[in-house]
């Protein structure tokens, strides 16, 4: 990307919906008190970039309206042209889960989109990977040091001999022992670790390194393996055939080489866009997220769905306050109930920890102009586009349907990424307003900046600049199409910036159960 | 270590206390039905190594007694010579917390031990490190990929220029954002991450890499820094002075080099053993843990306390069922109440997750002969030796007293290790019956095997063989002294096996609060 002017010269605000009584400041550096907008409105306060300006007088207790929805109530009388910051907006109650309309406004199927494809790795089970990776999973964190050790050796000694294998990735995680494995909520981390091994990017040739005495026995981790396949894919360090550390290392390298030989025979082939499984999330959101990056992502999501592919959106705490806008869109009542079940589960999970949804947003969100979780949620769900919601997954469940899916996960970036990998995601699109070097080792991540200034400053970390939408230099549709084409390129092997630099976050398996 | 015969030739069982009605089988491979012990007892079942034999007829519902304590009740009548396995022993109720005797049997101070010292790095605050490490901490996991990237560069480009610096360690963790930071239990991970930066092995020269928009702002992580020191030690990637990734990398390398120059001026100096801060834990315990390794560790713990040093024992779920043996040993009622507070907190934490203490032990513990958590706990607390308990720390609190301290942590090996590092531990002693490659990057870990066969097979992973105690080849006192001397050597710079191979687990900060 070049680094064009990051801000319009004239004072510019964006109002999104006809009934909104606030608009957000586009200009980098914000606007000063006295600045006059095109429509004649004069700012009475200095307002930072991304923050809200009152478009009309709002009485104390009056609704503050953005996206055509109430994002809160004024705690003081707000004059026209005033800065509407987080301290002036009281959080409304969340939508009550018992009385939501289910499948009352299911969108008509979008018109099919033909003729788009990518170069992927087709697996025996019909799924398609965007990468050809030797994955080395673990049944317990105890073995993590050994996995790091052998991954380094494999990269150095073996990988150069197998040029058609893209990478070797150690799937270390903190689960597996020292946990309440029979607690009701333990089902979440267990199936997450299980389903991670099935991610299409590992081509069905994953290794599992276990210790031997752990609670999550390796066989439990890959329950569908035949005993013969288990001998091929699973190794326990406590196995009495190993005398000394070097024997363990040799044993792992031998198993790894056998997998590498098989993986190396694979070639990319032309696959329809219907074989995409794209995960969506945001991190470090700002007030532009819901105006620029997320609508463009929503447009691209619709394109993928129209092409027959799979799109997952996630992040329960960022959906909760806008769930009343989603339940009408589910394909049937069962899916609607599943959506409500996940919201209720999370409400309860937070309550058990004596907290609630106001724990989100972060200071950076607020600095970026997001007053509260309602405003954040309204901007967040825009990523889902306009298609019917076909299915809802509990955390870590695998996707089995095409189309738009709500995959319940925490909003935490690395937890969401890990859970979507378990659900079968092979490429992630990540929108950010504040900026993050986030990346995943097991699947490429395309990062979309909400603002021109971020995209310009982080020119070698951001993959796409959606800030042009706010300045009027590009439309939502244009950036949506750009993103769709970039998804196809990255799915075909192009490296996004996080992979150019090798910036990868750890797996963070969601464990809502206690540790012991 | 050489690899001498791992098992006695004659059938051998160990009874620990005069009132015990079970003994455990010492022989590798176990004993067959019909085997005759020295005292004439004939086994009626085959009994695996480490498992229990009934020394007398035990009626249904009768107490099964080991360590002179009831470890459970027989679920069936057990004949003399029978195998007493986990299915035949019912878990008793845990000691009720409301009625425990506090400070009723405070041990007399042990006789002082003079003349022992090690070569350590003395810090400005009076603490002493066993290593001279450049620590690079993080306020949030988002930056983990960047930290890994710069740590590799520092090792390659900078560390060779600073030969007196032992290592550079990235302190990545999963906390910092996407968490309920205002939940009551969030105090635990917050102070853990804070106190990690103060570990004596970092010499007060730690760097903190932040993102900028995270909930746990870097300034909150190091609250005692002056603004000037904060500029020297803290860097946020979102700082607008950085244009592009390479600028961030250069910024970090510059700060790192300034720290390395200071750390490189440090030299080891003779420090009394009173400056040791040794953490204790076990992992992959078996029935020998409480007979061989843990008693030897307990003996060494007493030597450290006698020398004026600090010893931490931990692992709440493995102490809970033997807490009635600890509360009499606390120095005063306040410390006793703190010990009970930590037990009650954990009971409640497990109950909130709809589980209880029976979630521990693991399958490997059971395979090793430990029937249940009571038997495991009785064997575990032996590590604490015989001195008075001077203080109790809530998870992640820093030690401020010398002597024996109970530092409350989960039993999970890597969580316990992380929490003890936060409490100021500079060297850890780890006992294991099943074997684990566990290690920590920030402090050396001495691994003590409970059995000869494990020590022989894992000859280059285990640092000390306590199995000789079971076979009668060495006494508890002898192995205890060996361990004490090894602690002084390792504290002076000798590398235990995990550091020879570079096998290190990730930090696993204890977060009992929800993620969001
Ligand atoms: Ca988000
Ligand atoms: Ca997120
Ligand atoms: Ca990647
Ligand atoms: Ca333990
Ligand atoms: Ca442990």
Automatic annotation (TrEMBL), chains A, B:
GO terms for molecular function: galactarate dehydratase activity. It comes from the Bacteria. Its EC number is 4.2.1.42. Keywords: Lyase. The keyword Lyase applies. The keyword Protease does not apply. InterPro entries: GarD-like, GD_AH_C, GD_AH_second, SAF, SAF_UxaA/GarD, UxaA_altronate/galactarate_dh. GO terms for biological process: D-galacturonate catabolic process; galactarate catabolic process. CDD domains: SAF_AH_GD (cd11613). Residues 20-90 form the SAF domain. Belongs to the UxaA family. This is Galactarate dehydratase.
């Amino acid at each position: 990307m070049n680094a064009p002017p990051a801000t319009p010269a004239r004072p510019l605000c964006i109002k999104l919906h006809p009934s909104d009584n606030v608009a957000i400041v586009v200009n980098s550096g914000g606007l000063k008190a006295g600045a006059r907008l095109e429509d004649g409105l004069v700012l009475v306060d200095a307002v930072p970039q991304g923050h809200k300006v009152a478009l009309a007088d709002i009485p104390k207790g009056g609704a503050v309206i953005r996206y055509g929805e109430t994002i809160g109530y004024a705690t003081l009388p707000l004059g026209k042209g005033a800065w509407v910051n987080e301290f002036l907006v009281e959080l409304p109650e969340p939508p009550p889960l018992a009385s939501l309309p289910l499948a009352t406004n299911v969108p008509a199927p979008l018109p099919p989109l033909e003729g788009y494809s990518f170069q992927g790795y087709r697996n025996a089970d019909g799924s398609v990977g965007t990468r050809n990776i030797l994955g080395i999973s673990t049944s317990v964190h105890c073995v993590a040091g050994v996995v790091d050790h052998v991954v380094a050796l494999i990269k150095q000694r073996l990988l150069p001999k197998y040029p058609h294998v893209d990478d070797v990735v150690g799937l270390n995680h903190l689960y597996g022992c020292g946990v309440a494995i029979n607690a009701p909520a333990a089902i979440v981390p267990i199936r997450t670790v299980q389903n991670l091994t099935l991610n299409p990017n590992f081509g069905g040739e994953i290794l599992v390194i276990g210790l031997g005495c752990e609670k999550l026995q390796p066989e439990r981790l890959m329950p569908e393996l035949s005993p013969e396949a288990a001998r091929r894919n699973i190794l326990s360090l406590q196995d009495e055939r190993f005398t000394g550390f070097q024997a363990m290392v040799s044993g792992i390298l031998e198993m790894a080489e056998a997998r590498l030989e098989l993986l190396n025979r694979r070639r990319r082939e032309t696959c329809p866009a219907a074989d995409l499984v794209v995960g969506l999330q945001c991190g470090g959101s700002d007030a532009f997220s819901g105006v620029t990056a997320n609508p463009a992502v929503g447009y691209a999501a619709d394109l993928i769905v129209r092409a027959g592919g799979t799109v997952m959106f996630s992040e329960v705490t960022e959906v909760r306050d806008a769930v009343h806008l989603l339940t009408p869109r589910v394909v049937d009542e069962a899916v609607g109930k599943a959506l409500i079940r996940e919201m209720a589960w999370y409400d309860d999970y937070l309550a058990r920890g004596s907290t609630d949804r106001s724990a989100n947003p972060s200071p950076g969100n607020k600095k970026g102009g997001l007053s509260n979780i309602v405003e954040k949620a309204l901007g967040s769900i825009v990523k889902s586009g306009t298609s019917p919601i076909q299915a809802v997954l509990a955390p870590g469940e695998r996707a089995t349907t095409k189309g738009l899916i709500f995959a319940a996960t925490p909003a935490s970036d690395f937890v969401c990424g890990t859970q979507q990998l378990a659900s079968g995601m092979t490429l992630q699109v990540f929108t950010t307003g504040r900026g993050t070097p986030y990346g995943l080792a097991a699947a490429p991540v395309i990062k979309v900046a909400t603002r021109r200034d971020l995209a310009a400053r982080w020119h070698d970390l951001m993959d796409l600049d959606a800030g042009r939408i706010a300045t009027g230099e590009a439309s939502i549709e244009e950036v949506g199409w750009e993103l769709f084409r970039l998804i196809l390129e990255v799915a075909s092997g192009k490296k996004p910036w996080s992979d150019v630099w090798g910036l990868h976050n750890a797996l963070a398996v969601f464990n809502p159960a206690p540790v012991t």
